[in-house]
Amino acid sequence: MAVKIRFTRIGKKHAPVYRIVAVDSRKKRDGEYLENLGTYNPLTKTIVQWHEERIQHWVSVGAIVTDSVKRLQKIKNKQAAPAVVVDNAVAPKAKVAKKAAPAQDSK
Known about the structure:
Layout: E1 3-12, E2 15-24, E3 35-41, E4 46-50, H1 52-60, E5 64-65, H2 67-79, H3 91-105
Parallel strand pairs: 1-5
Antiparallel strand pairs: 1-2, 2-3, 3-4
């Protein structure tokens, strides 16, 4: 059995929402799936649900990820990147505090 990680469509007419599922590649697009791995809303371009550990499990046992899900993984990885802390942002606050301190001593 060849397993693929792909989209299945849910939602109403003209308002699609896609589930990311692990499914036998011979099944229909909206047919029975093995496991729900997440949800994506293309209208708002938001990933509603994402089960990274389960996706990695299916890939480790030989599941093939489709191109559209790979593209979504790249978007998710960019969103999850840690923010860079800039030291210069802290320095101006310290300068303001030092200027305020001498004014209190002169009173």
